[in-house]
Amino acid sequence: MKPKHQRLILIILAFLGLGGASFFILSAFQEALVFYYVPSDHCQKKMNSKQCIRMGGLVKPHSVHVTGKTVSFEITDQKASIQVHYQGVLPDLFREGQGVVAEGYLLGPNLFEAKSILAKHDEKYMPKEVADRLKEKGIWRNAE
Amino acid sequence: MKYRWARPNFFLKITTPLLPVSFILTLLFLTGGLYLGLIASPPDYLQGDGMRIMYVHVPASWIASLIYAFLALMSFFAFVWRHLLAEVLAISSVPIGALFTGLSLVTGALWGKPMWGTYWVWDARLTSVLVLLFLYGGYWALYKSYSRPEQGIRAASLLALVGVINLPIIKGSVEWWNTLHQPASLIKLSSPSIDPSMLTPLLLMAGAYFFYFITLLMIRTRTELNTRKLLILEAKK
Fold first, then answer.
1. Could you list the residue range(s) of the whole structural domain that residue A80 is in?
2. ipTM
3. Residue A113 resides in a domain
4. B126, B161, B178: best mutation site toward chain A, by most A Cβ within 10 Å?
5. pLDDT for B26-70, tens place per residue?
């Protein structure tokens, strides 16, 4: 066997091994690799109130209340929702129906104290006129 | 070497006319892309003018991954068959790939601050792209750490091949795990969720970046080949 064939077989075997190993590692870390939990997750798993976690979902329409400096709203994943309290500056994209990720502590089974709020943008890009037209036609899907 | 197209002299010969063509294509795509992207296209319904960063950011990320795939393929030829041209093409593509990865990370951060509310988060997509930058950096460091380039290229090629694992992770990160980064707008099975008036400048910018890469790659490879020729001539004296 020529040296170049040896090297070819070495590379292919190494690549198969490495690919397999990566697959198993990533599958094993599935839980740790998520950026945020959704409200229906927390109902199944009891989380520690001292642990800083991220909770993501959509801002439930008509749930935003501002009292002084405190904003309270509900995050929902359409299955379950959770009340969030937050003091501070909201990102520009924050609005009802928008995806957000709140970072903070779970105080009770349905109460979340947020330290920071990040807005999550969806993958849709369109001019304002197109968005208005879709809303007029009633085929606008605000919350997915 | 029995393959005519893999001979360095053949490469020098065919790139002489191709280089200006590629350069002109870069300018054409860039002019069209920048005009449509920055002036003629409408602002986004939600993000306003801030979404124009996307025309710089998204194609940069695509090309950064594409260059890595090219680097890995060339490293494969360089490691198994020890083709000189593959080695030189691999080395020449690394700084260009790192440039686009850096551009993608910086423009992403600038977009993230007003839209998400943060420059950086450690989600799967952002982290895997940072790993891509480290792979380019690692390749260069490993290649340069040997006093003889023919040893350095072996080690660096192996690193480049190991790093291929990162490419499907970058692509899949937004689908397999939930991330702050939005999923793909364009490369997905259903129809693209981006308006045609915004899709055109995006694709033009991708074209501009692609031909910019090809142009730079040809210039860098020619320089490297000529430098090596000179070194051989020097050594013969």
1. 35-120
2. 0.76
3. yes
4. B178
5. 999 999 999 998 888 888 877 878 888 999 999 999 999 999 999
